[in-house]
Amino acid sequence: MVSFRRILVLLAVSAAFALPLATAPAARADVIVVPPGNRSDKQPKVYSGSKLLTAMRNTGSFNDKYKRVYAVFANNPKLVARIKQVSARYGIDPVHVIGAIVGEHTYNIDTFDTLQDYYVKALQYAGNTTLTFSYKGQTAAQLFAMPQFANCEQMKNTYEKWDCRQTVWNRQFMGKFVNGKLYTKDRLHRVFFKPAFGGQTFGFGQLSPVAALMVTDVTNAKAGLPLLTIDDPNKVYEQIMSPDTSLDYVAANIRVEIDIYKRIAGFDISQNPGITATLYNLGDAATRARELKAINDQRAAQGKPPMYPQENFYGWFVNSKEAELRALLN
Questions:
Q1: Which among 95, 121, 231, 233 is least surrounded, fewest beta carbons within 10 Å?
Q2: Which region, left, alpha or beta, applies to residue 137 given φ > 0 means left and ψ of -120 to 50 means alpha?
């Protein structure tokens, strides 16, 4: 993985990310505000997995899927009102929440026609005693007890702890033999946090269990939602599957990513829904923020201007539709 291509990917993709707090940190004098809009005129190449998923499900083009999820918002004024309410709770522009959800349903999973369909789907998980966070007999708790993850336990907050865990997984476990055991070459939430009969992301917000666990301290403090743990998968799925609570986890993730990016990378991304959508899509904001900070420190030493955040295909699309998405809020 230490290839020239990998370095280029880090330079291009890391440029959109960062670490959190439940409340916004104090303003920094050197913070650069990222303006609205895309940095490039042309949409970056769409991830092959998104193309494959859309083709396999025969749900039409990306634009067809966008129109369907847009219609869900347009036909549900109470949903839009709920998004405004939740966004205000976390101190973010509601267009960030709408953009993240639109991106997920356009490029990853197709939307149901009505919110009622999401409630019906959630019932399939209710009371299922077979749900576990594990992989081939090893639980997530046993995985994180391994010495490779020891430093993660020293992190300041829940998001940083989970970001650290995901980074350790990516670098030391994914696709590698560890203690005589081969770990599959896939992201952590797709290996240890995937029920046998489901996908990797769930509910209207298309959240992974890890995404909810990362901000459970924030949603507990801001909305009084239960503190989630890896020892109670049912509670995690209950929270992310229900439209009544999933929006809080979407908004909390965005709030945390904005704060992290400002604090670590020195960029205020709160005015650019495409950047926050990119982060929502890719995750690991803290690690990405540190990578961008390192890149820009080096550029500064060379007398070069800082590298700005750049949207991936998903975030670029959200920015291109910002005017339409804001129309929903009016």
A1: 231
A2: left
